[in-house]
Each structure stands twice: as structure tokens, then as C-alpha cells.
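Pinned message: reference record for Helix-turn-helix protein
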Amino acid sequence: MPLSPSSSAQAARDSVARRLRDLRKGAGLTVVELAVRCGWHHAKTSRVENGRTAPSALDVRRWCAACGVPEQAADIVAQSLTAESMYQEWRHQVRSGLKQLQDSWVDFYRSTQLFRVYSPTLVPGLLQSEGYAAALLSTIGAFRDIPVNDGAEAGAARVERSRVVHEPGHRFVFLIEEAVLYYRIGDADAMAAQLGYLLTAGALPAVSLGIVPAATRERGMWPQEVFHVYDDNFVSVELLSAQVNITQPSDVELYVRAFERLRGMAVYGADARALVVKAIDALD
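Predicted structure (C-alpha cells):
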């Protein structure tokens, strides 16, 4: 796996930075000369060229004009916007509340045919019961000091969003670590309802639920960060501070390969249900 899930996002930023640096050098301009033509301090030029500051669309247009290639601005602006969309901080995504964030994924889910989800810590969102989701999202809202902590409404919206599991034209492969069954989210009733729902959802025709048993875990693949693979061209990785969106084919393939290796370590059907029932019994 990559050293950091955000490596693809940083690599995309670095690619924009290199392209701008090459334009400056190709025009025979020093860092200071370009800064003078663009009307900013030369330190900003250095920050942009080193990938520490993302250029705005106006910055790119000024840069290209200063280098005598204004026709390249539109392409570089598009490349820069793509790079910045790869790394989306949660604090920006939840400014309008957690319910809005749940609703924003509905259309994307409906357009996706194959979902592959791996989670080492939580029940995947598409399999969460309302009580579990509300408790989780309320806790997230409090932890992040979100001004609009609409955890209960967000939980209901998450369940509504999850109806895609029952719609035709989709397949779902979920992998969780056995420890997920024991991490208490909400009160005992909410956790019991969640575990019971796993037994029901895991039996749906379009759903494959695999659980990696703690006792027989192989050493060939260690637990990974939470990640979702949508079809074969998009991966979303969840970090504490941000969501990393990956579209680079080689990185997508890396996550698919990790998913398949983890999938081979999991148990399914009756064996998976036995692990869930064991966790339900442990609630008592």
C-alpha cells in the first residue's frame, strides 16, 4: 500500500507545480521576475512550485500570461482543480451539516454498479441501522465541533441513502474485521439492532458480507484504512481529517488488489452469521 493514502493527491498537486515551474523556466524567467509580472511576492512563486500552495484559477492565468503561453491556462486550471478535489477535508464538507453530506452521495450511489467496501473499525454506512448511524454521526459532530450537529437527521438520511442496496442493478461486497462487531456505538439497544440488521442485510441477494476473523487472521495483509471502491475507476479513502479521492488507475488497482487479498481471508454465509450471533450474545 502507499506510504500515505493522501500520496495520490499530493502527487497530483506536485504534477501541477512541476508544469508551472517548467513554463517559468521555459520562458527564461527567474522566480523573482515571474512574481513581478504576476504582481505577487516571490515567496508565493516558490510555494506554488514546491506544491505547498495550490494556485487559484486567476494565479494560473497570470502565470501563463507572464510566460507567454496564455492558451495553456485552461488546461492547467482543470488539472489543478482535479488535484484539489482529490483531498477533501471533512471540516469543509460538513459546514452545512452532516445530513447534507449524506444526501450529496445519493445520485453517485445510484450510478454505481459495483460497490466494494472495507472497514476495520465501523459497520459500513450502507449497512448501518438508523440508531447506530445516528449515534455515530452525533459523536462525529461533537468531536468535530460542527455548528449544525444534526446527527439524528443525518442518521435517517444515511438509512434513506442506503436503500440503494435494495435497488436492482447494483452489487455490494462488504468486508469488515471481526472487531467491528464489538466496538460499541450508541447504547446496547442500538448495537443489538445493528448486529441484528447485519444478519438480515447479509442475506440480501445483491450483498456479500465477509468478516475477517480475529483468531485466524493471516499475516499476509494487515488491517487497512477504511476504503470504498466504486466500480473499477474510483476509490474513496477515509482519514480522520479528510476524504481522499483516488482515480489514478495504478492506485485504484492497488486498492482493488488489497481488497481481493482481504476478501480471501474472510468468512461468509453461516460462518459469518455465527460471528455476528456470538457478538450479539456478548452484549448480555
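Pinned by admin. Summary line: The mean pLDDT is 87.
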